[in-house]
From TrEMBL:
Keyword Ribonucleoprotein: yes
Protein's cellular compartments: Mitochondrion
Family named by the database record: Belongs to the universal ribosomal protein uL29 family.
Protein name as catalogued: Large ribosomal subunit protein uL29m
Stored Pfam families: MRP-L47
Keyword hit for Cytoplasm: no
GO terms under biological process: mitochondrial translation
Keyword annotations of the record: Mitochondrion, Ribonucleoprotein, Ribosomal protein
Species this protein is from: Anopheles maculatus
Entry superkingdom: Eukaryota
One GO MF term attached to the UniProt entry: structural constituent of ribosome
GO cellular component assignments: mitochondrial large ribosomal subunit
Main location: mitochondrion
Amino acid sequence: MNILRQILPLSQQLSKCLSSVSTQQAYSLLQRHVLSPPTVRTLSTTMPRAELMEFFDDKKNWGEQEVKHGRGWTKDDLRIKSNNDLHQLWFVLLKERNMLLTMEHECKEKMELFPSPERLDKVKESMDNLEEVVRERNRAYYELETGSTGERPGKVVPNELGIRFYYRAFEHVIPKFANRKWNERHKFAFGGTAVRKFMRLYRERLYNEKRKLRNRERNEVVHLLRRFPNIDRETLAQRFPSVDVEKLYKLDKIRMNQPVKSST
């Protein structure tokens, strides 16, 4: 109704003036009264905030032991979103991560407990899932248009110490054979007595770490079977895939006086 009240008098005024003014003058009059009215405000749905308090959590959560929060974004949730929604959600998650990191640092400085630290893990998981969904769409688009994934090529190569890593290629202005700085920094080869000795000790260290981890898991399973003889062995086997739970359960020192349950 307010719009009609503004348009009706204007239309009557224009009908009287069009007979005596030119087309350019009529357009300037219409632009001055309709296209840019001085009383119209731009609609805003969010409160503008340009202050450092956006890097901090809500004040009602300060000093709390636990903050209520939801779950992270899964890939199935993100796949039904549009590209525009994913773009906006990325900046929302980025802003949330910056806020949580600021609050975590502030709590460490004041020797206080950071409430619900699992929020950082959920935000990181959501951002990783979002990035993976975007990469899936990019791969599908490039495979449909060009027949390739569109991602940077890469391969597993050794460095100067013989340690293998995944190298992702990227474009250079200078060709590879003429790029002296690139060739000096990227040497995908190794050799020499010192390097071979290093690789032998390095592989020995990795083997010892795997062996210690396997022994720790085995001892933990033995402790659980001694303390809880009726524990679900299938769940225990899923929790510790490197340990043969059935073989340990048949040991006399674990079973003690408990009868062995038949598999049938």
